[in-house]
Amino acid sequence: SQQGEEDPQALSIQEGENATMNCSYKTSINNLQWYRQNSGRGLVHLILIRSNEREKHSGRLRVTLDTSKKSSSLLITASRAADTASYFCATAYHTGKLIFGQGTTLQVKP
Amino acid sequence: DTAVSQTPKYLVTQMGNDKSIKCEQNLGHDTMYWYKQDSKKFLKIMFSYNNKELIINETVPNRFSPKSPDKAHLNLHINSLELGDSAVYFCASSQDVGGSYEQYFGPGTRLTVT
Hints:
The complex is a heterodimer. Chain A has strands at residues 5-7, 10-14, 19-24, 31-37, 43-50, 55-58, 61-66, 71-76, 85-92, 98-100, 104-109. By secondary structure, chain A is mainly β. Chain A starts with a strand and ends with a strand. Chain A is globular, with a radius of gyration of 13 Å. Chain B is mostly beta strands. Chain B is 0% helix and 55% strand. Chain B has no helices and 11 strands. Chain B is globular. The mean pLDDT of chain B is 93. At the A-B interface, β4, β5, β9 and β10 of A face β5 and β10 of B.
């Protein structure tokens, strides 16, 4: 199976703290993408990092990619209650297929 | 304007019925997808169309039939619904194929089969 794994499955932190989520995958990828899903809503794209990139930033989000370890991490700094959601990594292959991990459920307490 | 829209948002039906879910995108994208998300939030691709042509067809029962009348629309028809079909179905679109592009998701259709 090409499915990635995410860790932890659930994370609960206080507002203002940083949240780190990890994603591991099994086969060579074209790129890796992170998505957020608020409860009862569709997925929203956060960041795309290509296989030849090591780090990418977008606002309070920082994504790293280590292709030698086949892993990626998403760091959310200075978290807010509005960051409460599920976060999914998705590995993209040249076929156009996106394979999603099972997600990390993040709860940010006010 | 909503980028990717789906109708209906909720669908409750009985086993054995046939139902359709419609999806439209106004982003001018060439590629559209259908995903199924189960109760454990596991999201799995079902189909992908590029310019009305089927390019990804995962191991999905042939009771599921996608149809793309034009590149802005991708509908999903399900025959003889079963209890296990209960899930949230998401439509998505991207600029092109090849996995190099972000995907834009619709709000989902929650299908409940009783």
